């Protein structure tokens, strides 16, 4: 069970990020999650959207370089230690978390986190096996 | 090991014989061009020259020069010397500087070119026993098909690898026991490094010799390649305008490259005045193709700066030798005292799988020159991993350092962000105020 994430290359210059969000806005694309990785030189915007196909088409037409990859969307109880519990399961499985970020939507009592891990399927199995809820694309869109 | 020649009667002919061939062929060629290339005929007429006045090589200096600008003006068919139905192939320069050249070949032109590269391969020790891997690009670029033709003529088992896909390159070298490698020197170096990383020692690499050309390389780079691959590395010279690689080639003595003088007459001129310079003086290399029919260039200015030597060579060949070109008379940048050619940077990019969409920005900060190479990101290069992209950036910096001998900054920019004017990318921006 996984969610598709779009990574977009951003040149390190004023307005690069605004150009991206403008294109998404003009095409009425709803971002469900967003995160930005940056170096001194360039950036990668990582987004999860309601319509993957439309977004990749729009980005391609606008000349943005992008790549689609699978990530885990994990439902985490909104209590102290909630995230720690999830990470300890991944740690027991020797699964390396490459990066993670928070999801924009919310539901009372739960938080959602996006995880990029090495060994996607193994991690998904380990988490569901321990009673952690993973969210799929459809469910995500309704949040 | 005794020196081997592909065509001993030609390669070791007496100087008198070579001159006799050149005299006869030049006279014939000038007539051919006069009759079939109106563009050059007009140039001769402007000087008040007729073919009758060219009686031998002594009269060569009277003929007008051709430059890349002429080829641009004459593009595409203006310099064609035969009816189109006699042309069997074309090749073309990359045209990234906006000066694309399309060169034509009759079957006879292809055959004489194959002879030239066969001579180069034989001088590097190739025989029919050898497996020759051609890792130059195939296609419009002359490298792949040029060495391919010569390799088949020698009788080598020829592996038409083309460039790229390093893992497969190494697999074929090892599985087929390739003994001869033909590619650009920077790619040879890259292959060597990759094999070293795989834990291969030179005695586990079947290669024994390599022919490396199409870009400038230093003696230091030669020693590096020879050491990591456990081979002897030979230089080869040529340009698309004159057929391709094989206009001149190195022998076992490695003291300059022998020019195939039965096909090309070489002169050294003062690049400013056009005066022919005496032997031993450094100047611009000029070639006259005396046998090629479809693209018969007379006194073509190569822009390569070098020295000619007719001193006897220990290999027994009598053809004149040219030194490694010391640079081009135009488009050269001097950065921190180092000569840098945009073409070198381009070669590194292409070898590492990047497109030739780049811009070089030279500036001076705190009295020190800076070199920033901006490269357009491509979908193939992009991944979601910051670490992976940074790793590739570092590989590019390392590749540029090897090629140029100085450290450049590499900046990745958005696609199509590099300024293009009239379809031609602006390659160099020099902001220095000197």
What does this structure look like?
- The complex is a heterodimer of chains A (143) and B (434).
- Chain A has 143 residues and is an alpha+beta fold.
- Chain A has two domains: 3-69, VC0802-like (2-Layer Sandwich); 72-136, 2-Layer Sandwich (Alpha-Beta Plaits).
- Chain A contains five helices and seven strands, in the order βαββαβαββαβα.
- In chain A, strands 1, 2, 3, 4, 5, 6 and 7 form a seven-stranded antiparallel sheet that branches.
- The radius of gyration of chain A is 16 Å and the shape is globular.
- The model of chain A has no long low-confidence stretch (mean pLDDT 89).
- With 434 residues, chain B is an alpha/beta fold.
- Chain B has two domains: 1-328, 3-Layer(aba) Sandwich (Rossmann fold), CATH 3.40.50; 333-430, GMP Synthetase, Chain A, domain 3 (2-Layer Sandwich).
- Helices cover 31% and strands 23% of the residues of chain B.
- Chain B has helices at 8-11, 15-36, 38-46, 68-74, 107-123, 142-154, 166-175, 185-197, 219-229, 342-351, 386-404, and strands spanning 89-92, 102-105, 131-134, 157-159, 180-183, 209-213, 232-239, 244-250, 257-259, 264-269, 283-289, 300-306, 308-309, 321-322, 333-335, 338-340, 358-365, 368-376, 409-413, 420-421, 424-425, 428-430.
- A nine-stranded mixed sheet of chain B has the order 4-3-5-6-7-8-9-14-13.
- In chain B, strand 18, helix 11 (386-404) and strand 19 (409-413) form a beta-alpha-beta unit.
- Chain B is globular and about 70 Å long.
- Chain B starts with 7 loop residues before the first helix and ends with a strand.
- Classes of the chains: A alpha+beta (143), B alpha/beta (434).
- Chain A binds chain B through residues 5, 7, 9-11, 16, 37, 39, 41-42, 44, 46, 63-67, 69, 98, 116, and chain B through 377-379, 382-386, 389-390, 393, 411-417.
């Amino acid at each position: 069970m996984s969610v598709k994430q779009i990574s977009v290359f951003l040149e390190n210059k004023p307005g690069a990020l605004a150009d991206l969000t403008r294109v998404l806005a003009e095409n009425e694309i709803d971002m469900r999650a967003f995160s930005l990785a940056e170096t001194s030189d360039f950036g990668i915007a990582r987004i999860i959207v309601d319509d993957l196909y439309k977004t990749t088409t729009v980005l391609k037409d606008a000349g943005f370089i992008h790549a689609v990859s699978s990530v885990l969307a994990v439902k985490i109880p909104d209590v102290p230690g909630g995230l720690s519990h999830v990470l300890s399961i991944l740690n027991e499985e020797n699964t390396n978390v490459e990066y993670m970020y928070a999801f924009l939507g919310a539901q009372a009592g739960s938080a959602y986190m996006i995880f990029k891990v090495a060994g996607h399927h193994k991690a998904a199995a380990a988490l569901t096996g321990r009673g952690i809820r993973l969210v799929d694309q459809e469910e995500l869109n309704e949040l | 090991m005794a020196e081997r020649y592909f065509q001993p009667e030609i390669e070791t002919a007496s100087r008198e014989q070579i001159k006799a061939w050149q005299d006869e062929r030049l006279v014939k060629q000038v007539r051919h061009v006069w009759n079939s290339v109106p563009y050059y005929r007009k140039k001769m007429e402007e000087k008040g020259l007729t073919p009758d006045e060219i009686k031998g090589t002594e009269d060569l200096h009277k003929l007008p020069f051709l430059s890349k600008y002429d080829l641009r003006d004459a593009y595409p068919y203006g310099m064609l010397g035969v009816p189109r139905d006699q042309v069997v192939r074309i090749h073309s320069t990359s045209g990234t500087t906006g000066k694309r050249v399309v060169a034509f070949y009759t079957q006879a032109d292809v055959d004489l070119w194959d002879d030239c590269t066969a001579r180069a391969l034989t001088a590097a020790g190739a025989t029919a026993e050898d497996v020759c891997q051609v890792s130059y690009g195939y296609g419009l670029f002359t490298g792949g098909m040029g060495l391919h033709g010569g390799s088949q003529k020698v009788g080598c088992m020829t592996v038409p690898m083309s460039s790229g896909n390093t893992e497969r390159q190494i697999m074929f070298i090892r599985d087929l026991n390739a003994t001869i490698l033909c590619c650009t020197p920077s790619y040879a170096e890259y292959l060597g490094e990759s094999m070293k990383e795989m834990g291969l020692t030179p005695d586990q690499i079947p290669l024994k010799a390599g022919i490396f050309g199409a870009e400038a390389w230093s003696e230091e780079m030669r020693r590096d390649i020879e050491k990591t691959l456990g081979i002897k590395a030979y230089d080869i010279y040529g340009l698309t305008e004159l057929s391709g690689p094989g206009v001149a080639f190195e022998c076992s003595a490695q003291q300059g490259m022998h020019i195939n003088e039965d096909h090309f007459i070489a002169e050294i001129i003062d690049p400013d005045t056009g005066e022919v310079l005496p032997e031993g003086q450094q100047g611009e290399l000029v070639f006259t193709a005396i046998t090629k029919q479809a693209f018969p260039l007379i006194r073509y200015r190569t822009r390569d700066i070098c020295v000619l030597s007719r001193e006897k060579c220990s290999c027994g060949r009598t053809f004149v030798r040219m030194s490694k070109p010391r640079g081009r008379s135009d488009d050269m940048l001097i950065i921190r005292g180092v000569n840098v050619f945009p073409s070198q940077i381009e070669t590194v990019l292409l070898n590492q799988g990047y497109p030739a969409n780049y811009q070089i920005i030279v500036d001076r900060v705190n009295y020190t020159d800076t070199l920033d190479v901006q490269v357009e990101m491509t979908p193939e290069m992009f991944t979601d991993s910051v670490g992976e992209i940074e790793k590739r950036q570092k590989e590019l910096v390392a590749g540029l350092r090897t090629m140029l001998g100085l450290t450049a900054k590499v900046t990745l920019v958005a696609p199509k962000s590099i300024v293009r004017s009239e379809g031609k990318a602006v390659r160099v921006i020099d902001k220095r105020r000197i």
